[in-house]
Amino acid sequence: MNVLIFYNYNFGIEDVKECFEKKGYKFKVVWSEQLNQRKCTELDDIFEKEFDEGVGGRAFDCVFTFNYSPVISNNCNKRNVPYISIVYDSPQILLYSYTIINPCNYVFIFDKTQYMELSNEGIETVYYCPLAVNTDRLKSMFNDEYEGKNQLYAGDISFIGSMYNEKHNLYDRLCGVNDYTKGYLDAIMKVQRSIYGYFFLEDMLKGDVLDEMMRVCPVKPNEDGVETVQYVYANYFLARRMATDERTDILSRVGRELGRENKINLYTPDVSVRFINVNNKGTVDYYNEMPYVFRNSRINLNITLRSIKSGIPLRCMDICGAGGFLLSNYQEDLYDVFVPGEDMVIYDSIDDLITKCKYYLSHDVERRQIAQNGFGKIEEKHTYDVRFEEIFNMVFN
Question: Would you say the pTM of this structure is higher than 0.85?
Answer without folding.
Answer: yes
